Amino acid sequence: MANAKALEFTIERNSAPVEANERAKLLENPGFGNLFTDHMVVIRWSENLGWHDANIKKRGPIQMNPASSVLHYAQEIFEGMKAYRLADGSTALFRPEENAKRFQASARRMAMPELPVEVFLQSVEKLVEIDRDWFPSVDGGSLYLRPFMFASEVFLGVRPAKEYLYMVIASPAGEYFKSGATAVTIWVSEDYSRAAPGGTGAAKCGGNYAASLVAQAEAIEQHCDQVVFLDAAERRWVEELGGMNLFFVMDDGKLITPPLSGTILPGITRESIIVLAREEGLEVSEEPYSIEQWRGDATSGKLVETFACGTAAVVTSVGMVKSRHGEFTIGSGGPGQLTEKLKSRLVDIQRGLSEDRHDWVKRLF
Fold it and tell me: NCBIfam families of this UniProt entry (predicted)?
């Protein structure tokens, strides 16, 4: 069985990659999630062989049987992470071991096989190296990496599958939110919940995001950038956005963020922000925070900033919150001072511009 910590990869280079001049033109304005590199990683798992058949090959369509179990029972998980070009020209990943561990945790929750951390790291590092020419030169540009796994066994029946495909694709990325957005406006979802106790809220699986899309569509109809979800039981406690964790900054410098109670994704950016804020001497409390508190504290001035954080958008100020009951502005409605300071500290570490005291940055080449 090929279950060793490291696997031997077969590399089949794309015989017709995007030409350099065309690639350069594409990278002038990569956007987010629309442009992809020349290669992809594919590794198979089966009940009999374990992890095997590790390949890096030309990125292309996947041939699937219509009875593949993922299409019927949604056994699927993914990760989101970035590779960065550092100030000295080298390339690095930010806390990739944490992505690997979260991928394993998601797999356990979804009754899927756990990919060894070492194999996860191998897969993303090798793809970054082979597609290194795809780094965008735009300000804040990065190579967004999407490892994912799904049930590929051909069968109809409600049980964990016995065959899976693990893959990694890469996407040159610019800004997540539209250019010029200094603070986002969010919509409070009162009809829909993202996750419930005992559910899959802490797993990074496609089903969680699919369930959020109707609420996100509602937010767009209300001219908002994102949706924020409340807890499923009382519809009172603030949990997270459709794809980002939230922080609340009080007038005494205290930061509050909703606790990881099984319904919120344990964000790697979230955990990094907590560490950096405490290094600044700030109090950070992981505690429940209600929509009533949010509205009241913003109105009274006790709440001075709110920000969202995640791999894609990094750290983003929230300027206004809308709901059926009206709207309220946070602070001046623009980017918060502490928000920008914490974002700058985090980005400077990711880009190799400041000291990495925690060994978060893993240099590749």
Answer: ilvE_II (TIGR01123), PRK13357.1 (NF009897)
DSSP, collapsed to helix, strand or coil, labels residue 232 as coil
Angle at 109 between CA 105 and CA 113, to 5 degrees: 70
pLDDT, block means (10 residues), the chain with 365 residues: 72 97 95 96 98 98 97 98 92 98 98 98 98 91 97 97 98 75 91 94 96 96 96 96 95 97 95 98 98 98 97 94 96 95 96 95 95
CB 142 within 8 A of CB 132: no
**CA 195 – CA 198 distance, rounded (Å):** 9
Is residue 363 domain-resident? no
- Helix residue ranges, H only, 18-95: 20-27, 70-73
CA–CA separation, 283 and 277 (whole Å): 8
Query: How many distinct structural domains can be found in the chain?
Result: 2
Q: Which structure tokens are listed for 321?
A: 């919150």
Q: Position 169: which residue type?
A: I
Pair (263, 156) in one structural domain: no
Name the β-bridge partners of 238: 230
CA distances from 185 to 220, 248, 255, 294, 320 (A): 10, 15, 20, 14, 5
Checking DSSP bridges between strand 81-85 and strand 142-151, what pairing results, if any?
Answer: antiparallel
- DSSP class of residue 17? P
Residue 3: inside a domain, yes or no? no
Contact 62, 18 (CB under 8 A): no
